[in-house]
Design a protein that fits this description.
alpha+beta; Arc Repressor Mutant, subunit A; Endonuclease, Chain A; three-stranded antiparallel β-sheet; about 50% helix; TrmB-like
Amino acid sequence: MQYSHKILEKIGLSKGEIQVYLAGLKLGPALASALSKEAKLSRPLVYYILESLEAKGLVSKFGHKHGGRFTTESPSRLKGILERKRKELEKIEQQLDKATVELESLYSPKAKPSRIRFYEGIEGLKNIAQDTLSVKNTEILALVPTENTFALFDDSFLNYWRSEREKKQIKSRGIWSKFIDTPLQSQNLQELRVFPKDLMFPSTVVIYDNKVAVFSSPREQFAFVIESDEYAQTMKALFEQLWKRCRSNNRNL
């Protein structure tokens, strides 16, 4: 059930809601006391969770107000939650377009952003990867220890990143530790070369506009972004020198 737990978490159910929901699927129509025992949670907490699940359309109640039985709805109802979230996000996206105009009017160029931003955890790393898609000069330079880089993100996120990159026609040059097939490969937008055999390192480095993002290995799961014209120029110069030393794969991806 580990896979099911992960999916239920992704659609927004808390751990307690998952425990009660799975207990309900197993028991069928049941009293709160039975659900409490099966889920191994206190009865007051189970009542609270049942109210939450009922509001989401995953549980229904019949019988007396006190002592009634609860029925867990079919797992097919879960798709309804995703559909509602999708519509909510579409609405928020439309509202954000309007709000951005107002927010930009408040932004003062004199208020310089932090020069270094540090992130921990996979969601923080995804935020930085998303930020690389905001590149203005439409080219990204990347030093990629292949196995570490692609172990950081799941295929779902990699496919999303590639799709957004293709929409924006963002080109890149990458120096990889070795060539592998990944969802990040994008025809006509990506030129790849391979590290010299005497040069290996565990961190991924991405240079875009005046920013340099550094991603750790999957074991440490941290990243930071340095926003500096001088530092970005320095890293670009180093990248160009390394690019000349590297072996090309003689094809665009």
